[in-house]
Amino acid sequence: MRKTTRAAVAVLAAAALLSIGAQPVQAGGAHGKKQTLRSAAPRDLRIGTAVAGGGHHVDQPYPDPFPNDKQYRAVLAHEFNSASPENQMKWEFIHPERDRYNFGPADAIVKFARKHGQAVRGHTLLWHSQNPAWLEQGTFTKAELRSILKKHIFTVVGRYRGQIHQWDVANEIFDGNGAYRQENIWIRELGPEIVADAFRWAHQADPKAQLFLNDYGVEWPGVKVDAYEALARQLLADRVPLHGFASQAHLSMRYGAPDQLQSVLQRFDDLGLYTAVTELDVRMDLPEGGVPTEEQLATQARYYTTTLNACLAVDDCNSFTLWGFTDKYSWVPVFFPAEGAATVMWDDFGRKPAYYALRDALAAAR
Ligand code: 9MR
């Protein structure tokens, strides 16, 4: 059986701490001050981050972060053992014209990751957003569209064959009512069966990559989670190569702690799938002056650890990714003007309580 005994180990560790009246493992532990998120983490859990670039960054008053910000790269290498291109593998970025691919930025991330012993999460192949104009506004027959998707998947997944830990094959395919999103060009034009084909093609192009369904708004049970569970059951029954289900976990302190995430992930673990947290951040309403209160930072730390503990408690939750690690490059203030401070580090990479809380929780679970 693939299941590990991580949950049992965590329970024993907690019991041992209680019995000797010890405090939870503090920052440092066996590695002194040098301990990082990746060094603190249990061996069977990847700790990742989005790698900033493309998307909203293009309109910001700073140079492209990943290639240009040395301190950013150093922290990225030091703290994480998994990397997710934030935009650099999305269609509009990597396939800007029908007959032209732009692989440079994605290649650079994959190379960096290899150099620093990091896994890569590929993001993403079938999505309704960030598609190039040539695709969204073009006129194609169904057969042409199908072959465009197939070719794209074989080209992109094939290029990084053997170097990608997990692919978000299908991203955000259901709306809040659990219905297939009609703004998704593939689903609208080709029908929902195209989702299974995307998984089959990705698997043919890279048989070792773990292939995921990925979405937000699945942190609590509800119709969207039900839709994913039904789809996952169907795909597995049809022997489609589906390997995982991921919760993005873009949290806001407006909506409460993700205290049911463990039970959601467990439902997919029970189907024999891997699970993952792929895009965690915790935004908050900023007080006047823009600086969060101590209380807000404490609540934020709690949301982060509740999410991590959900993953740690589920046997085959094998990847835990933050959607960026510094507020300097976060997407949040650009999309939610009243909210911010969503990551675990300030603009100057100083660590917030959430960072230390995550590191301590990882060390305690080891
Ligand atoms: O962080 C990404 C940002 O730079 C882009 O401008 C934005 C455009 O949609 O996408 C952001 O990333 C999204 C991710 O790809 C899918 N889940 C939601 C993320 C936040 O919007």
UniProtKB/TrEMBL annotation:
Top-level taxon of origin: Bacteria
Domain GH10: start-end pairs: 67-361
Keywords linked to the UniProt accession: Carbohydrate metabolism, Glycosidase, Hydrolase, Polysaccharide degradation, Signal, Xylan degradation
GO biological process, one term: xylan catabolic process
Catalytic reaction annotation: Endohydrolysis of (1->4)-beta-D-xylosidic linkages in xylans
Pfam family, one: Glyco_hydro_10
Leader sequence segment: 1-27
Keyword Hydrolase: yes
Family to which this protein belongs: Belongs to the glycosyl hydrolase 10 (cellulase F) family.
Full protein name: Beta-xylanase
Species of origin: Paractinoplanes rishiriensis
